[in-house]
């Protein structure tokens, strides 16, 4: 006789299902427990996949942030160079350059180019009139003269320093 069988009322539905429940208990974990275990395993796999993806994304963000900082620094350098490469005419009186300093310099330089066919390749992007620093006498300062001489490749007289 089965160890889970009830001797009385052998025809009742409870008595018929009891041996089956007992056999399932003897066989090991139930189907529900297997489903829960499978769900937990899937969740752990998804979490591990998310963590590895998260790490890759974090590394990419750090790399792109560093690249962004390099590009910003390069852009600031280019802007600084663009400002330095502007043509500045020191000591030009206001109103001489009608209608603009840019057009005035373009005309002046292209008219002085020899041969004339080179003038079509020459354009001025930016030009500015700069009154320059003045000394107590109202003229350009000695420091300004020194800079101009040095730019032309000449040496300043020691007494002008």
TrEMBL record:
<feature type="region of interest" description="Disordered">
    <location>
        <begin position="1"/>
        <end position="30"/>
    </location>
</feature>
<feature type="compositionally biased region" description="Polar residues">
    <location>
        <begin position="149"/>
        <end position="161"/>
    </location>
</feature>
<feature type="region of interest" description="Disordered">
    <location>
        <begin position="122"/>
        <end position="161"/>
    </location>
</feature>
<keyword id="KW-0175">Coiled coil</keyword>
<protein>
    <submittedName>
        <fullName>Uncharacterized protein</fullName>
    </submittedName>
</protein>
<feature type="coiled-coil region">
    <location>
        <begin position="33"/>
        <end position="67"/>
    </location>
</feature>
